[in-house]
């Protein structure tokens, strides 16, 4: 599978992804790797309603997503979306190669530290980000294709 971008965005498929990233990268296929939505047909259908015409999409469990990525020899430009760092780490543990990951939006909330304007994390999530960075995953906080890139690993003090 030709992965054009792996993006962490707790909103998954929404206007920014549809209008910004799919157009900028010529995305023809979106794969959402999410264990919860994969088994919730209502949420799955609501999410898939946001997919633009001409782009195919599916929502699969993290394990099934990894299996599809591994088995596919497709050259279709693909965007993989996950909700947060825990899901990204699970996809990484399943063997999906991710030399570079776009961290787009992870909302604020109780006990969440602001890392960038759009990215917030709990102490546990910062630990997950750090582990991924130290495993060689380049974490780039970037909201839109035209936005500047922020090195998330530097912000969390990951050792490279």
Could you outline the blueprint of secondary structure elements for this entry?
Blueprint: E1 3-9, H1 15-25, E2 29-33, H2 35-38, H3 41-48, E3 56-60, H4 62-71, E4 78-82, H5 85-93, E5 100-105, E6 113-114, E7 120-121, H6 123-134, E8 138-141, E9 150-151, H7 152-156
Parallel strand pairs: 1-4, 1-5, 2-3, 2-4, 5-8
Antiparallel strand pairs: 6-7, 8-9
Helix pairs in contact: 5-6
Q: Could you characterize the architecture of this molecule?
A:
The protein is α/β, with parallel strands linked by helices and about 160 residues long. Helix content is about 35%, strand content about 25%. Helix 5 packs parallel to helix 6 (about 125-135). It is globular and about 40 Å long. The model has no long low-confidence stretch (mean pLDDT about 95).
Keywords:
160 residues; two-stranded antiparallel ribbon; alpha/beta; 7-stranded mixed sheet; single chain; 7 helices
Major sheet attributes:
7 strands, mixed
User: H/E order of the elements?
Assistant: EHEHHEHEHEEEHEEH
Q: What sort of overall outline do the alpha carbons produce when their principal axes are compared?
A: globular
User: What structural class results from the helix and strand content?
Assistant: alpha/beta
Q: Can you tell me the residue ranges where pLDDT is under 50 for at least 5 consecutive residues?
A: none
What is the gyration radius calculated from CA atoms?
15 Å
Helix content: 25-40%
